[in-house]
């Protein structure tokens, strides 16, 4: 374990004739042997041991120094008893939301959970009954489907429309599905995983108006909200219209932004008192109370001190995306990049290769030696696509892209 003094020394080494600290995102950190889901469970999941994994959505970058320092202070103290967040935690989270997303939240709105998916599952149980219909927009993050079905609700799919490499919402179909299926709840994904859309104010306004018209509650998964590429801006759905705020559960977390997924902490905001009471009651039913001590510490530190790290990270990811863009155009005939507006997850269209979903998945694993997320798991409309995580050192991404040429 590095001391705080050593960490500061390491930081100074990265300053190259510039007063601004430089983080070394090119450095490769060996994650094997750390019980990493991404790197250490290939055999358990039926993959070759030497496969190169770019699937699960965590990053191969060490966290900001300030977060490590905060956690090291807890470790040195040596007692890991029950913990709770003080007011400084909320102030750090609230300041981040206001500065980065122009959203002023109130302390009463906050309900902390160990994860966004946990929060979505709790919302499903709190606001709907078995047999009720819940709307999603495939191809979308596959745990949405899982928590709907696992809780004995009916999944209704308002499939996104893909045309000329861009996905849009089909509002006519959305209204018809809501009306015919008596939809009670809609899970919005913004920015959208895996297609990378950052929904516009106009699109979100239409969503909100439909949900108000038909009495549909909205659970808005905004976990990727800090990863938006130049030219786009994330719009918090609940902040768009005071009326939407009353029907919305907004799910956020520092896990994607600051690579803290293993510390299990999420911040769920519910402005409506009645909805919040029902949600808290459902959390209480699960027997869950205080969050992981390290998660609370890391979250507060990240939102208080992590902006510089994130700014430089996003610049680096922009370079990685440009690499993918050029490589696909020059070296991968028959493969098309669905241009992302947000997230560090890239959606590749390989349908032109003429392979079935099973053939494509096997080719990626057996010929290319890559572990990606096959598009079919995001819904049938995702078949023929692959999702690749570009949040890794550039040399690793280059190797992955070179390997991908083997399937052609």
Oligomer: single chain
Radius of gyration: 21 Å
**How would you sum up the global shape?**
globular
Distance between the termini: 45 Å
Low-pLDDT sequence parts: 1-19
Helical content stands at 40-55%
Helix/strand order, N-terminal first: HEHHEHEHEEEHEHEHHEHEHHHEEHEEEH
| Portion in strands | 5-15%
Number of helices: 15
Report on the structure:
- The chain is an alpha/beta fold and 408 residues long.
- It folds into 2 domains: 4-64 and 307-407, Aspartate Aminotransferase, domain 1, CATH 3.90.1150; 76-305, Aspartate Aminotransferase, domain 2.
- 41% of the residues lie in helices and 14% in strands.
- The protein has 15 helices and 15 strands.
- α2 packs antiparallel against α12 (293-305), α3 (87-101) packs across α12 and α4 runs parallel beside α5.
Keyphrases for this structure?
single chain, 408 residues, alpha/beta, Aspartate Aminotransferase, domain 1, Aspartate Aminotransferase, domain 2, 2 domains, seven-stranded mixed sheet, four-stranded antiparallel sheet, 15 helices, 15 strands, globular, disordered N terminus
Compose a concise summary of this entry.
The protein is α/β, with parallel strands linked by helices. It has helices at 4-13, 65-77, 87-101, 116-127, 143-150, 171-181, 201-214, 237-240, 242-245, 255-258, 273-285, 293-305, 307-331, 357-367, 394-404, and strands at residues 52-53, 110-113, 133-136, 154-157, 161-163, 166-168, 183-189, 217-221, 248-252, 266-269, 336-338, 345-349, 370-371, 373-374, 385-389.
């Amino acid at each position: 374990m590095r001391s705080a003094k050593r960490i500061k020394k390491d930081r100074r080494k990265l300053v190259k004739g510039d007063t601004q600290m430089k983080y070394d995102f090119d450095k490769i950190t060996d994650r094997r042997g750390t019980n990493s889901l991404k790197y250490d469970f290939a055999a358990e999941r039926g993959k070759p041991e030497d496969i190169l994994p770019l699937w699960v959505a965590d990053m191969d970058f060490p966290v900001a120094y300030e977060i490590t320092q905060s956690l090291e202070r807890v470790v040195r103290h040596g007692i890991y008893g029950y913990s709770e967040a003080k007011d400084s935690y909320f102030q750090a989270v609230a300041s981040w939301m206001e500065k980065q997303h122009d959203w002023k939240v109130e302390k009463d709105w906050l309900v902390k959970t160990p994860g966004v998916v946990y929060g979505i599952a709790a919302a499903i149980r709190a606001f709907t009954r078995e047999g009720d219909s819940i709307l999603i927009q495939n191809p979308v993050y596959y745990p949405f489907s899982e928590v709907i079905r696992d809780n004995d609700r009916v999944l209704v799919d308002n499939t996104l429309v893909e045309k000329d490499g861009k996905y849009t919402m089909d509002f006519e179909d959305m209204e018809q599905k809501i009306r015919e299926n008596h939809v009670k709840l809609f899970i919005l994904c913004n920015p959208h995983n895996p297609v990378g859309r950052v929904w516009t104010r106009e699109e979100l306004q239409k969503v909100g108006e439909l949900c108000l018209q038909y009495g549909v509650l909205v659970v808005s998964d905004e976990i990727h909200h800090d990863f938006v590429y130049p030219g786009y801006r994330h719009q918090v759905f609940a902040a768009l219209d005071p009326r939407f705020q009353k029907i919305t559960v907004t799910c956020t977390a520092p896990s994607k932004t600051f690579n803290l997924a293993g510390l299990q902490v999420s911040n769920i905001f519910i402005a409506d008192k009645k909805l919040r009471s029902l949600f808290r009651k459902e959390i209480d039913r699960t027997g869950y109370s205080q969050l992981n001590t390290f998660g609370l510490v890391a979250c507060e530190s990240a939102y208080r001190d992590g902006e510089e790290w994130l700014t430089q990270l996003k610049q680096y990811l922009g370079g990685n995306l440009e690499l993918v863009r050029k490589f696909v155009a020059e070296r991968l005939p028959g493969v098309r990049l669905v241009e992302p507006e947000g997230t560090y997850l890239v959606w590749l269209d390989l349908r032109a290769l003429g392979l079935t979903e099973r053939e494509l998945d096997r080719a990626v694993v057996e010929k290319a030696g890559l572990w990606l997320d096959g598009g079919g798991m995001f819904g049938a409309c995702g078949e023929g696509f692959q999702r690749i995580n570009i949040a890794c050192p550039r040399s690793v991404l280059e190797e992955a892209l070179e390997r991908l040429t083997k399937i052609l």
